[in-house]
Write a structure and sequence with these properties.
It holds the Pfam family ABC_tran. By secondary structure, this protein is an alpha/beta fold. The chain has nine helices and ten strands. The structure holds adenosine-5'-diphosphate.
């Protein structure tokens, strides 16, 4: 499904590459935990996968389309949910924001309303977006992404700032998407909410892919890259030899 091959990327005007020789393979339907410290290059890699930027070196291949070259096709098949909902929401109400994705045909409006209900926003259909809570704005962005029915869902730090119930809801959504066979890449600086769900984990460190593989194997070495290993995983490892 996805092949990132020896990708390097430098922002215009910046000297140092933000991504440096990154290669990553993702199977169709996988849930990938893309982790790393702040500034390690996670958002930049997601933007390349979404076709928003082109690699300076190397290629990003998603579903048979390659960048550089086919960024438009990459954009069409993926949905990227940004960390900052305020940068993503373009409508002035829930209705307007979702209809900007679906269009205003009768069936499209019904689909948008249904999605608003599914994300708990049905009662806010006509609400100005500035009256939504932080969590509701994040849900609006997730609902808009779901309406696009992407082949690849890219979520940038979706857990940050969520309270426990919202975190559980998001975990439920990821599980539901995985069961539907959707390929999902989720960036996190803290692996805790995803460690037990991810099929694979990839760790970026200063723009390079430091670790990639099964979560158990990656977590074994994750602390060396500044990642907090979940207590539950640590406890299991400690107890296991005595069991
Ligand atoms: P992460 O998502 O892991 O926090 P980012 O991909 O956002 O990392 O950022 C990686 C590096 O790229 C950081 O040093 C950041 O300052 C830099 N960077 C991000 N966006 C831009 C930009 N638009 N222009 C220049 N540098 C940027």
């Amino acid at each position: 499904m996805i092949d990132v091959s020896s990708v390097s990327f430098t922002y215009a005007g910046a000297g140092e590459p933000v991504l440096d020789g990154v290669s990553l393979h993702v199977e169709r339907g996988a849930l990938v935990c893309l982790c790393g410290a702040n500034g390690s290059g996670k958002s930049t890699l997601l933007s390349l996968l979404a076709g928003l930027f082109s690699p300076v070196q190397g290629t990003v291949r998603v579903g048979g389309h390659s960048s550089p070259g086919a960024e438009r096709a990459l954009r069409a098949q993926s949905a990227l949910v940004l960390q900052d909902a305020d940068l993503q929401i373009i409508g002035s109400t829930v209705e307007e924001d979702l209809l900007l994705t679906t269009g205003t045909a009768g069936a499209a409006v019904a689909a948008a309303r249904g999605m608003a209900d599914r994300f708990g926003l049905g009662g806010h259909w006509n609400s100005p977006v500035q009256t939504l809570s932080y969590g509701q704005k994040r849900k609006l962005c997730l609902a808009a992404a779901a309406l696009r029915a992407p082949q690849l869902l890219l979520l940038d730090e979706p857990f940050s700032g969520l309270d426990y119930p919202a975190m559980c809801e998001l975990r439920g959504l990821l599980r539901h998407n995985a069961a539907e066979g959707l390929t999902q890449i989720v960036s996190v600086h803290d692996v805790e909410p995803l460690a037990d769900m991810a099929d694979t984990m990839a760790v970026l460190h200063k723009g390079r892919l430091a670790l990639d593989g099964a979560p158990e194997a990656v977590l074994e070495h994750a602390e060396a890259y500044g990642l907090r290993v979940p207590c539950s995983w640590r406890t299991n490892r400690t107890i296991a030899p005595w069991a």
